[in-house]
């Protein structure tokens, strides 16, 4: 899937490989969910396996954190170092000799190389981005209520609030789709629109992918709740999905601040 994505972005011919990889990832997730659910319901997991799951999920989320730290680091490096250097500031200000007429500003609407056309304008953070921020924050609240209800055995309450969380996740995805359409159709924000377009789509795109995955996981939890799975204390599958969703929400808050607002 990643190789197909790279070929598609660079050459535009990797879509078949991308789709094959995507189907493979979905298949792995489906078979994995099936096996873990059947083993758990069959009583095959003991306390040691519970600890193993918790450590595994913790390290997985840590790896995801480092994944986003790398892209945030690229954004900060460009904004705090590379662009000022090209404007003649700092220890490497000699870089300004490459494009002497370049004016260092962010968002970078006018890339130093005139062969690259920058975006025409950027999004106001107080419109669609703010709506999506409120949606995700609300979804964390609804998911927490669902989790607490499950802990005390209120399964119907848990189900209802979990349905709300899944719907909010779907709303976020649809609104981001509208934002991407607006970016390409009216704002000139594309992957080819200089470093701003590249960092914008890399950060928000990978986050959107994580929201899609998180929504699928929560939908799976919803089906399990409907089937009577999980007990008041034995429900780490549900708890792990909550960890993941809250992590995705926190990452979005960082995106909203550093990509849209600051």
TrEMBL record:
<feature type="transmembrane region" description="Helical">
    <location>
        <begin position="243"/>
        <end position="261"/>
    </location>
</feature>
<keyword id="KW-1133">Transmembrane helix</keyword>
<dbReference type="InterPro" id="IPR024791">
    <property type="entry name" value="Cyt_c/ubiquinol_Oxase_su3"/>
</dbReference>
<dbReference type="Pfam" id="PF00510">
    <property type="entry name" value="COX3"/>
</dbReference>
<dbReference type="GO" id="GO:0004129">
    <property type="term" value="F:cytochrome-c oxidase activity"/>
</dbReference>
<feature type="domain" description="Heme-copper oxidase subunit III family profile">
    <location>
        <begin position="1"/>
        <end position="262"/>
    </location>
</feature>
<keyword id="KW-0812">Transmembrane</keyword>
<dbReference type="InterPro" id="IPR000298">
    <property type="entry name" value="Cyt_c_oxidase-like_su3"/>
</dbReference>
<feature type="transmembrane region" description="Helical">
    <location>
        <begin position="53"/>
        <end position="78"/>
    </location>
</feature>
<feature type="transmembrane region" description="Helical">
    <location>
        <begin position="195"/>
        <end position="223"/>
    </location>
</feature>
<dbReference type="InterPro" id="IPR033945">
    <property type="entry name" value="Cyt_c_oxase_su3_dom"/>
</dbReference>
<dbReference type="GO" id="GO:0019646">
    <property type="term" value="P:aerobic electron transport chain"/>
</dbReference>
<dbReference type="InterPro" id="IPR035973">
    <property type="entry name" value="Cyt_c_oxidase_su3-like_sf"/>
</dbReference>
<dbReference type="InterPro" id="IPR013833">
    <property type="entry name" value="Cyt_c_oxidase_su3_a-hlx"/>
</dbReference>
<keyword id="KW-1278">Translocase</keyword>
<feature type="transmembrane region" description="Helical">
    <location>
        <begin position="6"/>
        <end position="33"/>
    </location>
</feature>
<dbReference type="GO" id="GO:0005886">
    <property type="term" value="C:plasma membrane"/>
</dbReference>
<comment type="similarity">
    <text>Belongs to the cytochrome c oxidase subunit 3 family.</text>
</comment>
<feature type="transmembrane region" description="Helical">
    <location>
        <begin position="158"/>
        <end position="175"/>
    </location>
</feature>
<protein>
    <recommendedName>
        <fullName>cytochrome-c oxidase</fullName>
        <ecNumber>7.1.1.9</ecNumber>
    </recommendedName>
</protein>
<keyword id="KW-0472">Membrane</keyword>
């Amino acid at each position: 899937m990643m190789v197909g994505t790279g070929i598609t972005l660079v050459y535009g011919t990797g879509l078949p490989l991308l789709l094959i990889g995507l189907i493979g990832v979905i298949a792995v997730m489906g078979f994995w969910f099936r096996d873990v659910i059947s083993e758990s319901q069959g009583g095959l997991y003991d306390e040691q396996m519970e600890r193993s799951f918790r450590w595994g999920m913790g390290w997985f989320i840590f790896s995801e954190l480092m994944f986003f730290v790398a892209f945030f680091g690229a954004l900060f490096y460009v904004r705090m170092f590379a662009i000022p250097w090209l404007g003649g500031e700092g220890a490497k200000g000699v870089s300004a000799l490459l494009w002497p007429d370049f004016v260092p500003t962010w968002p970078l609407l006018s890339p130093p190389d005139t062969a690259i056309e920058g975006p025409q304008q950027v999004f106001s953070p107080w419109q669609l981005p703010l709506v999506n921020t409120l949606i995700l924050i609300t979804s964390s609240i609804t998911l927490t209520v669902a989790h607490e209800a499950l802990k005390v055995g209120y399964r119907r309450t848990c189900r209802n609030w979990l349905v709300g969380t899944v719907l909010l996740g779907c709303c976020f995805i649809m609104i981001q789709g509208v934002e991407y359409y607006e970016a390409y159709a009216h704002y000139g924000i594309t992957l080819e629109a200089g470093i701003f377009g590249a960092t914008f789509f890399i950060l928000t795109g990978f986050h959107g992918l994580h929201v899609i995955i998180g929504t699928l996981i929560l939908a799976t939890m919803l089906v399990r709740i409907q089937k009577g799975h999980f007990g008041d204390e034995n429900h780490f599958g549900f708890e792990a999905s909550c960890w993941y969703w809250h992590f995705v929400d926190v990452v979005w808050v960082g995106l909203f601040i550093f990509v849209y607002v600051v």
